[in-house]
Design brief:
Length: 431
């Protein structure tokens, strides 16, 4: 299947051309986001109140250190907003420790690994094709220059096999086990992971960047009571600013295996001064704002809708496609395209031309390069937030199936998608 890229609704010129200036480019992007159905599982829309907090005067503050212990004067307001974000993070996730300074989940993961490990130490994590994340000591990540990664996969049914994790931990003696990933559609047995970690004297790190909203709303099990450390980002399922959070539950107050200082102290030092100077206080204000919203019933309603739409998407796609693990417990559906003789890249491009944004993704046992990939990942965070009705979302699912069956359907489906999305303005009147 080949797609004519000039047919894309918003084509970025390849040279140094700036045809519309920045204001015009923002306007074009606004129109593009408004008229497309974004099913990219890692994306969301920043809640408008959160956006305002992020762009408040706190964006002007540069200071280092932690509340009550700063390296610049005039930081009392920054202390208040950071303490607020920490308290809200602890109460939303039932944590006893939170660090809200990380610029991203990637840097949060780097800080956590640095806090817990010495160079050359072994980390056991999920392999990339099974849904793990780059920063979990995968080969392409800088983390693999400092630490040695060994990897567990998934069973033929697409599920994690804790017996395999246990066996690999016994064989390779990792210091840290990481669970959580970016393309694993199923709930994770965090208590089971902790039992394996304890059996082998390992520290358990859970990365819930993709499912933090479902966890906060109680629709997925929480790792916080079980994992020594939990990391997440605020810009995927929380509809917050770009940024990372590091949480710890009951283990925060004691030294982790192999260390003498408390986990809380090790984590704080790893974020600052190991990895960062000044945090982004605009983002911290945005984190406080979004966590306040996450605690409210309206957020839980959005998360229930995320799940309903994901189940609908899975039901519609499973008639014609193989779904990894046969379905979903989250916002995410992962399609294995191999039986259809399609690559993830071709499927992604065909849908993009029809106004449906998804992303190619490797699937368990995938032997294609990640730029091609044998799978397609779709998620419902944005569709739920924009309030799509079941009937309208179902219409979009029909369009997706039609385009993947025959690229000749692209122009018709593109018009249909734009027609559906016209009824759903971007929340808060973004422009
Ligand atoms: C997206 C993601 C990250 C990286 O998040 P950034 O904040 O964008 O750096 C880390 N871990 C997992 C599992 C993710 O899905």
């Amino acid at each position: 299947m080949t797609i004519d890229s000039t047919a894309l609704p918003f084509t970025v010129p390849s040279g140094r051309i700036r045809p519309h200036g920045l204001a015009g480019t923002i306007r074009a992007e606004y129109e593009y986001q408004r008229e497309t159905l974004c099913l990219i599982a890692a994306r969301s829309i920043v809640h408008p109140e959160v956006a305002a907090a992020t762009q408040s005067v706190f964006a002007n503050v540069t200071t280092e250190g932690y509340p009550g212990d700063r390296y610049h004067s005039g930081s009392a307001g920054a202390d208040v907003v950071e303490r607020m974000a920490v308290d809200l993070a602890c109460s939303v996730f039932g944590a006893t420790y939170a660090n809200v300074q990380s610029h991203a989940a990637s840097t949060a993961n780097l800080a956590v690994l640095t806090a817990l490990l010495d160079p050359g130490d072994v980390v056991l994590s999920m392999d990339l094709a099974s849904g793990g994340h780059l920063t979990h000591v995968s080969k392409p990540s800088v983390t693999s220059r400092f630490f040695r990664g060994v990897y567990y996969g998934v069973r033929a049914d697409g599920r994690i096999d804790l017996a395999e994790v246990d066996r690999l931990a016994g064989e390779h003696r990792p210091k840290v086990i990481i669970c959580g990933g970016s393309a694993y559609p199923r709930a994770i047995d965090f208590a089971g992971f902790r039992r394996v970690a304890d059996r082998h004297g390992c520290v358990l790190v859970a990365d819930i960047s993709h499912t933090a909203g479902l966890v906060a709303a109680g629709l997925q099990p929480s790792p916080v009571p079980h994992a020594h450390v939990t990391t997440l980002c605020t810009h995927k399922q929380l509809y917050g600013p770009k940024g990372g959070l590091i949480l710890s539950g009951p283990d925060a107050v004691s030294p982790p295996p192999g260390r003498t200082e408390t986990l809380a102290k090790l984590l704080d030092r790893a974020v600052f001064p190991y990895f960062q100077g000044s945090p982004d206080f605009g983002a911290i204000a945005g984190k406080a704002c979004v966590l306040d919203w996450v605690a409210k019933p309206e957020f839980a309603r959005v998360m229930r809708r995320v799940r309903e739409l994901a189940d609908l998407l899975a039901r519609r796609l499973e008639r014609d496609f193989d779904l990894v693990s046969g379905g979903t417990d989250s916002h995410m559906v992962l399609v294995d395209l191999r039986p259809r003789g399609l690559t993830g890249r071709d499927a992604e491009r065909a849908l993009e031309a029809a106004g449906v944004l998804t992303n190619r993704n490797r699937v368990p046992g995938d032997t294609t390069p990640s730029r091609v990939a044998a799978g397609l990942r779709l998620g419902t965070n944005i569709a739920a937030f924009r309030g799509l009705t079941t009937a309208d979302f179902d219409r979009c699912c029909t369009g997706i199936v039609d385009v993947l069956a025959d690229p000749a359907a692209v122009p018709r489906v593109r018009a249909e998608i734009a027609g559906v999305m016209a009824a759903y303005p971007l929340p808060g009147g973004w422009s």
